[in-house]
Amino acid sequence: MTRLSLTTALESWPLKKPFRISGNVFSETSNVLVTLDDGTHQGRGEAQGVYYHAETPESMAAQVESVRDAVEAGIDQAGLQALLPAGGARNALDCALWELESRRTGKPVWMLVGLDEPRPLLSTWTIGGDAPDVMARDAIDYAAARSLKLKLIGDGGDADRVRAVRAVRPDVWLGVDANQGLDRKKLEDLMPALVEAGVSLIEQPVPIGADSQLDGLNAPIPIAADESAQTLDDLAALKGRYQVINIKLDKCGGLTEGLAIARAARDYGLQVMVGNMVGTSLAMAPSFVVGQLCDIVDLDGPLLLARDRHRAVVYADGRIDCPRGVWGATQVQGVSA
Hints:
The chain is of the alpha/beta class.
């Protein structure tokens, strides 16, 4: 394999306003940016890491540095899977390898992984947990959204939050995300309000490790596993408790495993969702590839940022599209314009 040059950079991107989820408030998103250079072509990968695993840009950069010699000697995606565990560091390197291969071959990543030419995807636009009237105003401001996801807090006010948003946006698909902030009783108490509001998805209501609380629930609304669904190895334990699995590349360790999870989930009778850790367009682009296999798409990270990269994904009519040049080969062979 061709010898590579590896560089890392730590970045910080301010949010438009503080973003609240159950147990956390974020005012910026930070990431590690990995670049692989073979002397002619470059490949890039961005990772925010998994905050509830205490991953930081510094810790991910140190993890990347620990495998520098092996990476620079020349490595492929399969070799990387064995070199690092799932997490942000492997995600950044994996995505950099995919872009490098794309630019070397002149083929877009979707072609390299055996998918049809991508189509724009309907994406949720996320509203952070706040007072009901504030969330309602945000829902009105997101006039282009056709699909909204509301962050729940678990403080007893979630029913009012959902009602307030539904009252001003009766037109949208509506999902909620508790980020582990509920338990079985709170979920059961909240369920009538969710059903009344026409909520279509409940994401990660209970904490990691407490998934057995969902046994026998028979919820009238599909429940998605996010924090409880890290890698391919987790799928078997989710069946019967969850109906949807949320793939995030920072959790599973990159596009390679993300695609494997999306394809394997069908065998377990699970629907597939792709999400994000609030990154720039460079982080959305590989997830957009996974999104081509998904039932639900949540790739709105750049919408929460005060600024984005120069080459950016496009949001229009509630959909996300990823033009050539955001990530992967800019001039491609064998693909119509």
